[in-house]
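User: Before I run my own analysis I want an independent prediction to cross-check against. Here's the chain; please return only the structure tokens and, at the end, one sentence I can use as a sanity check.
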Amino acid sequence: MSSKHQKGPDLKRFMDKRLKLSLNSNRKVTGTLRGYDAFLNVVLEEATAEKAGEGGSSENIGTIVIRGNSIIQFESVERIAAAT
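Assistant: Structure tokens:
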């Protein structure tokens, strides 16, 4: 066995920023990133879900946990400082 520990995702610079997540089944959720883990499970606060086919309307869903394996893409809604 290898003694190297696999590192999780580095989302520190996205903490407390608005993100738009594309999920499987063509779902989209926007919210403020409040937490994450090594499996890319994320906690979003003040989240809204886009309703498909209803002219871009959205539904407020509050604070949610999204399982990492259902996330297809992260998109920042706010400007993120460059990594140093």
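Sanity check: The chain has a mean pLDDT of 88.
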